[in-house]
Amino acid sequence: MSVEERAETSTPRHGPPAARPRRAVVLGGGLAGMLAASVLTGHADEVVVLERDRLPATALPRKGLPQARHAHVLLSGGARAMESLLPGITDAWLAAGARRMALPTALVSLSAQGWIPRAAERQFLISCSRDLLDLVVRQRVTALPRVTVREGVEVHGLTGDARRVTGVRLTDEGNGGPGTLAADFVVDATGRGSRAPRWLTGLGLPAVREETVDSGLVYASRLFRAPPGAEDFPLVSVAPSPGRDLPGQGMTMHPVEGGRWLMTVSGTRGGEPSRDNDAFEPFARRLRHPIAADLIARAEPLTDVHLNRSTVNRRRRFERLDAWPAGFVVTGDAVAAYNPVYGHGMSVAALDAVALREVLAGEVLADPRVARRAQRALARTADAAWAMAAGEDIHYPGAVGERPPAATRLLRGYLQRLMRTGTVDHAVTRVLLDVMTLSAPLSRLFAPDVALRVARGPGLRPPHEPPVTADEMARAGLAAR
Ligand SMILES: Cc1cc2nc3c(=O)[nH]c(=O)nc-3n(C[C@H](O)[C@H](O)[C@H](O)COP(=O)(O)OP(=O)(O)OC[C@H]3O[C@@H](n4cnc5c(N)ncnc54)[C@H](O)[C@@H]3O)c2cc1C
Question: Domains of the chain by range and CATH?
Answer without folding.
Answer: 3-72+131-212+312-390 (3.50.50.60), 99-127+213-310+465-475 (3.30.9), 400-456 (no CATH)
